[in-house]
Each structure stands twice: as structure tokens, then as C-alpha cells.
Write a structure and sequence with these properties.
Structural class: alpha+beta
CATH topology of the largest domain: Alpha-Beta Plaits
Oligomer: single chain
Shape: elongated
CATH class of the largest domain: Alpha Beta
Order of helices and strands: EHEEHEEHEEHE
CATH superfamily of the largest domain: YajQ-like, domain 2
Helix content: 25-40%
Number of strands: 8
Distance between the termini: 6 Å
CATH architecture of the largest domain: 2-Layer Sandwich
Largest sheet: 4 strands, antiparallel
Strand content: 25-35%
Strand order of the largest sheet: 6-7-1-8
Length: about 160
């Protein structure tokens, strides 16, 4: 029986490349000179933006998002948190990377598939949703329906089997 999995993952190599490019650009750009603006990675792999003002932090986040977009990393995979005050009159902002399909999002995908009335079955399996059906055309129609719905998370289709 044909099937495929719906998952939400980020290409971690492209994330790392985009992060390094953004760090280089911030270090070289004239408007960031002498502002102690920098990007760091924390132990969980999330990005931390540090700057001496809110405006600089927002500009650094803009550079980071631009590099992510150029590298093909979906911006829905970023979850910028509020800008918080830090030591020495500086500010910091945590940018979480969304990895894995949360149970609420998986339930939305299952409900979307059932709502369309396609002849497929959707089952939540950990951090993925497995879609099975008798015909490959039904599965492709299901993929189009999922792509068309804006769920606010990056989705990929894997393990297509016939």
C-alpha cells in the first residue's frame, strides 16, 4: 500500500552555513562596527543575538533571516523570542529553531486530511504523520492539500513508498 511521511525538519548543515555567513556579515558591516553586536549558538543549538540596543538586535536578526532565506532554510522554522535586557546595558534575543512535529500540528494535519475527504488514512507516529492510501494519485492530492494549507511550520514529505 503506498504511503509517505509528513515531517518538520531543518537542514542543520544549511542552518550552520547561514549562521556563519550572518556572523561574518555582522563582523564586517560598517553599521555594526563598535556596537558589540554578535550571534552565538547555545547548547541546544538555538541562536542568541546579543547587541547594545533593541534596534541593533533587530537588525542582526534581519541579517540572520536574510541568510537563512538565501540558503533555502524555511523562515517558519525560526521562532524569535522577546528581546530581553542583559548585563552591562546590553540586550539579548533567543531565536529558537523549530524541529520535529508537535502533537498539535500533527493533529491539524490529520484533521486537514480527513476534512478533504480523500481516500487516505493519516496516523500520527511520534514526530511524523504517516499517510497511506490505495492509489498514488490520492497521496499526491493529499500532498497538494497539505502544501496549500498554511500551517506556519516547515513541512517535508519523506519515505514515499509504493
Amino acid at each position: 500500500m503506498p504511503s509517505f511521511d509528513v515531517v518538520s525538519e531543518l537542514d542543520l548543515m544549511e542552518v550552520e552555513n547561514a549562521f556563519n555567513q550572518a556572523r561574518k556579515e555582522i563582523a564586517q558591516r560598517f553599521d555594526f562596527k563598535g556596537t558589540s553586536t554578535e550571534l552565538e549558538r547555545d547548547k541546544d543549538g538555538h541562536v542568541v543575538v546579543k547587541a547594545n540596543s533593541d534596534g541593533r538586535a533587530e537588525a542582526a536578526l534581519g541579517v540572520l533571516m536574510e541568510k537563512f532565506a538565501k540558503r533555502g532554510v524555511p523562515l517558519e522554522g525560526l521562532d524569535p523570542q522577546k528581546i530581553e535586557p542583559a548585563a552591562g546595558g546590553h540586550v539579548r534575543q533567543l531565536v529558537k529553531l523549530k524541529r520535529g512535529l508537535k502533537s498539535e500540528d500533527a493533529k491539524k494535519i490529520v484533521a486537514l486530511v480527513k476534512e478533504r475527504g480523500l481516500k487516505v488514512q493519516a496516523a500520527i507516529q511520534g514526530e511524523a504523520v504517516r499517510i497511506t492510501g490505495k492509489k498514488k494519485d490520492d497521496l499526491q492530492a493529499c500532498m497538494q492539500a497539505i502544501r496549500g494549507a498554511s500551517l506556519g511550520i516547515p513541512l517535508q514529505f519523506q519515505n514515499f513508498r509504493e
